Amino acid sequence: MWPxxxxxxxxxxHPIVLAPLAGGPGTPELAAAVSEAGAxxxxxxxxxxxxxxxxxxxxxxxxTARPFLVxxxxxxxxxxxxxxxxxxxxxxxxxxxxxxxxxxxxEPELRVPPPFRAQLEVVLDEAVPVFSVxxxxxxxxxxxxxxxxxxxxxxxxxxxGEARALAAAGLQAVVVQSSEAAGHRGxxxxxxxxxxxxxxxxxxxxxxxxxxxxxxxxxxxxGRGVAAALALGAQGVQLGxxxxxxxxxxxxxxxxxxxxGARADDDPTVLTRAFSGxxxxxxxxxxxxxxxxxxxxxxxxxxxxxxxxxxxxxxAGNADLLSLWAGQAVALARAGPAGDLVRSLxxxxxxAIGRLSRLGR
Length: 361
Fold this sequence. Notes:
Largest sheet: 8 strands, parallel
Shape: globular
Strand order of the largest sheet: 1-9-8-6-5-4-3-2
Mean pLDDT: 95
CATH architecture: Alpha-Beta Barrel
Distance between the termini: 23 Å
Order of helices and strands: HEHEHEHHEHEHEEHEHEHEEHHH
Number of strands: 11
CATH topology: TIM Barrel
């Protein structure tokens, strides 16, 4: 498409990055299709055990020889105190009828998330081409270890201060997550409620704060959004919602239908802690509405509390109980092969830049 610091760093043709889409929508097949089209495919490994993460990386390598990215959650912010027995009981009681609705009985097992250090060891051992971290930073020692294994290292920021912290730790690029973005907020220094800044206001501020390349993430769905992000100071873009309904996406049929059915005349998304305990943007549904006045456990307890319910709801085609992560421009989502979407984005961006260049004549 055009050369940039991101295409040079990652050795790709187009400065387009597939968002990691952890938890099901992101698959080796989707990542491979995006990489094969000249962009940067991604695997979201945050919820995967070290063994499963290794298997996913190897599956992706079997599908493409092109560069790809692996993302993990750092959870760098100080974790909240563990919920009390009373708080846990009230949260379980709220979720119980929804579990029953999809045929689940008894109490859910509150499993702990996979250990970050063990996941990182897999990333190092597999020598992935590009690595990114969300919800925290890395130590300079970890950054150095990744670079010695040949990895390009990205981090996610929601404020200029977080971007400066990532740059100071030696990371090579910053994914700038605006308030419009789908899924979990990546904030790790600023209070999350004070880090909800739109792309038009956020990206120029981050561009002025750090010298390393920026990748814009948040409600970019077509070439107009790509061109706008480049004009605001980004050297690349990261798209997640745009790929949810593609053929290679692992999103359930109910999830894809909800994405493609989103209305264009209002904002169908909400910010909610209902599914995981961490603030995230999703399509509003019955569970998120009910949870707005319900007891919510912190992450990872709430994540574990709703995990079986969400899995059963996906199998049953019940979108009302799914975590339908989506950005505010979800109504622009398209179905079809992921590679075709990449090629459309490239052409649409060229067209948008061409229109702008003609305005300046």
